[in-house]
């Protein structure tokens, strides 16, 4: 960082009156802050790294108060950096600003395979942090496990299920698969069935793996009850909306069996619940049926969920979800994106394989193309249908694909007539200042994210809801009110 950059950063923090995802402000005008480890960990564990800015006081509206001793500050910060595993290598910059000296410590991101960075004194479970907005939050056991699994090349599709035996596998299906392998890979002809199943990771020491059960078991959910798919059709735009009859769901189905069975059932469920328009070519008179969503886009989204979901013990109690709403289709896959992949990389970079064994077997049994073509196919299919590009959402414990069925881009949804009653009730409710969580609960919406996107932000942009802290729109203390 150049001196000019440090001064510009200080000005920006003062203007915004807020810290950020990559900026943490510490006063340090009396002494070096003694507990920087939370932020050192969280900055090191995010791809963008972060900057510790010393010399502004958040409690005094980020006024420039300077640092007590530039040399001693850098020494003590470095000592705390060396208490991390792996050690953090901070890069310091100092500058004179508003008559005092300020200092920045740039904290670089560490390689994904070395994460999580944690405070040695607390251990990996208690000393690992992740940055959320302007706060540092303890990593969950699942988040730590994800890093460790990647670093140690652990693949949960090869995890054995001790209760299972080979006797629970469908012999005909298994024999057909092994025969196909022997034909396409002549070297397999030299192995007996037991050797072949071990080499293909269908079994480990004679015990079926998750990949083996999900592809060949007569009824996999007998051992893994929640490794299935649930499908619902909601008569509205949010969970909790009801039809005129009072029904919460217009269709509700659980899909089980092998991956091939679940895929077939899921596609049948989607086809049954999509609107289909019949178009007659005025010149040829030829009939063409156009589905509400491109079938190829749904196919890829469902296959991706089945093949690339997290099959660890942390998520094996969560099924894949297919949720139809009046304006969109959502496919929820348990587990966040694997390894170094980010949402921005999807379709452009080859991902690390989370379930390589399961992917290879499923490719043969479902005609899935294990060629990293799913995301580009979805994007192309939606574009050709004149619909918005698919939206990909990567959360702490799930990955979501959202397909919209209307041509307008969804970034700034408009409050339409079918939500008018809710809007009026919400404005009345907000005559008393309300938090985002209170608004979501009032609307009966399961997540603050959807309440904010669908109702709060449009009303703020229209000037019908006002922020209690307008200078800090993302503040955790933010409330919303109206004068109506």
From TrEMBL:
This is DNA binding domain-containing protein. Residues 425-480 form the Filamentation induced by cAMP protein Fic-like C-terminal domain. Residues 19-140 form the Schlafen AlbA-2 domain. InterPro entries: Fic-like_C, RecG_C_sf, Schlafen_AlbA_2_dom, Schlafen_AlbA_2_dom_sf. It comes from Agathobaculum butyriciproducens.
